[in-house]
Amino acid sequence: MPSLSDLGQLPKRLVLGRAVRSDRLGESLLPKRYALPIFASDPLSSVAYATQEILIVLTLAGTAFLYLAPWLAVAVVLLLITVVLSYRQVVHAYPSGGGDYEVAMKNHGQFAALVVASALLVDYVMTVAVSVSAGTDNIISAFPSLNEYRVPIAVGLVALLAAANLRGVRESGKAFAVPTYLFISGIAVLIVTGLIRYFFTDAGIVSETAQYTVTPEPAYESVAGLALLFFALRAFASGCTALTGVEAIANGVPAFKPPKSRNAATTLALMGGVAAAMFAGVTALALLADVKYVEHPCDLNGFANCETEPQRTVIAQLAAAVFGGDASVGFFFIQAATALVLVLAANTAFNGFPLLGSVLAQDRFMPRQLHTRGDKLVFSNGILLLAGFAMLLIVAFDADVSQLIQLYIIGVFTSFTIGQWGMVRHWNREMRSEQDAVARRRMRRSQIINTIGGSLTTVVLVIIVLTKFTHGAWLVLVAMPILFVLMRGINRHYSHVSEQLVPDTDSRLLPSKVHAVVLVSKVHKPTLRALAFARATRPDELTALTVNVDDADTRALQADWERYDIPVSLTVVESPYREITRPVVDFVKGIRRDSPRELVVVFVPQYVVGHWWENVLHNQSALRLRARLQFQPGVMITTVPWQLESSVGRDDDANGGPAPGDLRRGLTDDQVDASPYG
Question: pTM value?
Answer without folding.
Answer: 0.71
